[in-house]
Amino acid sequence: MNTSDTGIFEAFYGRLWAALNRPDDPDLGQHERQLLHHLTPERPVTLGWLASHLALPTSTTSTIVKRLATRGLVRRVRDPGNERRLAITLTPEGRRRVEADTVLDPGRLQAALAAVPPAERTAMLAALQQLVQAAEALPQRHLTTRQPGEDSRDRR
Asked: What is the pLDDT of residues 136-155, one digit of tens each?
């Protein structure tokens, strides 16, 4: 493999993204989507953690959380361990919204895949599976990657 392979892949990836990406829902902005994807129903996070993690001002994050809470997508309660902090979690409706969210337009993706002859589509998907497996086998990008279930203080 040479560097032109990466350039060719990046060009194809960019074109594929442009052709198949799903625009944001009209009722859910990019920051709202990002915030929802960083919450779970089970493990509360603080406003400060969310703001820091999303690289947003606390005031902006607070406004987004309030708006999402009003719409029933997140729950805000006082942290029982520290009444000065909010504990923020996804509601069942928020979880459904996250689970249904996709970066690609499913209809356009299905139509594009259907336009590829079956034998070529099978080979293409097998090659993509190999690329995914190779990418997942690479060492972690970050030295401080946290695994699920690690010290919950990391999210406060």
From this structure: 899 976 433 333 343 343 44
Q: How far apart are CA 145 and CA 86, in angstroms?
A: 25
Query: Residue 53 corresponds to which tokens in the numbers above?
Result: 């993690």
Render pLDDT for 70-85 as a digit per residue (tens, 0 to 9).
Answer: 999 999 998 888 888 8
Amino acid at 60: T
- Residue 91, classed as helix, strand or coil, is coil
Cα dist from 66 to 62, 72, 147, whole Å? 6, 10, 28
Q: Which fold has domain 24-101?
A: Arc Repressor Mutant, subunit A (1.10.10)
Q: What is the Cα–Cα distance from 65 to 35, expressed in whole angstroms?
A: 8
Strands annotated E in 2-152: 74-79, 82-90
- pTM as predicted: 0.62
